[in-house]
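tokens incoming
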């Protein structure tokens, strides 16, 4: 152990390339093992990996496993691999949940800075999204009132919507919104339990996102009647697969509620 430590310190001092000794000190010791259970969780400082395979019983076959990779400062990286066959519904929402700063009224939140850099490899046709999933409630820790999704990618999936066009496509309630450096369409609907608001990029996939999620709440409170007295109770970011096979690798993710 001592010799390993010495080697590490020695290497850090003679190798001029990064990581620097400071990076090594900031790199937290976390559980990087693979987890595949329906409700498995792994806590890492302010973050928590949730397997959340809530719809797996709708699949005729399949599985999903996830692991944390590293936590350095407030930046976490993780990976999830899934393969799902059968059923028309979403099978899971494996995600990174932020456990610090939630249960705060929207009016008391000044910013929610986030970075999300990811890549995905897949085989064949997949149906999935990559998205933030945020919930508000009338009370701190209360039941969900509004679900706010910010999609960074739509792989043959689609948002929940009250209205659909004759072409079968969901009809946005607002179009071409410029928020957080990208252009979005906003969809409104219900999942049966609460209102769902979904921001989707008007085109393409955003694999490197950096912005303030508070901007999306500001839009909804100013234009869509969500009250600033609502409490943000859940803040998650992950992928919702329905079918196919893919590996989603998040090389850098961070979120804070200020
Ligand atoms: C959104 O922008 C696109 C591209 O400029 C344009 O074709 C479309 O008409 C706009 N939609 C609305 C509802 O303004």
């Amino acid at each position: 152990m001592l010799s390993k430590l010495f080697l590490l310190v020695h290497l850090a001092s003679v190798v001029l390339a990064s990581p620097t000794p400071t990076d090594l000190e900031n790199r937290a010791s976390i559980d990087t093992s693979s987890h595949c259970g329906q409700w498995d969780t792994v806590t890492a400082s302010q973050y928590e990996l949730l397997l959340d395979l809530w719809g797996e019983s709708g699949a005729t076959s399949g599985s999903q496993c996830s692991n944390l990779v590293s936590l350095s400062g407030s930046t976490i990286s993780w990976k999830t691999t899934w393969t799902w066959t059968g059923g028309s519904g979403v099978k899971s929402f494996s995600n990174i949940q932020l456990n610090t700063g939630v249960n705060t009224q929207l009016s008391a939140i000044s910013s929610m800075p986030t970075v999300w850099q990811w890549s995905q490899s897949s085989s064949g046709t997949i149906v999935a999204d990559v998205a933030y999933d945020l919930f508000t409630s009338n009370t701190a820790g209360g039941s969900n009132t509004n679900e706010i999704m910010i999609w960074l990618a739509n792989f043959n999936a689609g948002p929940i919507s009250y209205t659909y066009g004759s072409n079968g496509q969901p009809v946005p309630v607002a179009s071409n919104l410029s928020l957080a450096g990208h252009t979005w369409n906003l969809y409104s609907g219900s999942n049966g339990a609460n209102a769902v608001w979904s921001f989707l990029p008007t085109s393409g996939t955003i694999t490197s996102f950096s912005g303030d999620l508070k901007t999306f709440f500001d839009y909804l409170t100013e234009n869509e009647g969500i009250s600033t007295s609502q409490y943000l109770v859940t803040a998650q970011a992950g992928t919702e697969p329905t079918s196919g096979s893919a590996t989603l690798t998040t090389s850098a993710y961070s979120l804070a509620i200020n």
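note: Residues 1-16 have pLDDT under 50 and may be disordered.
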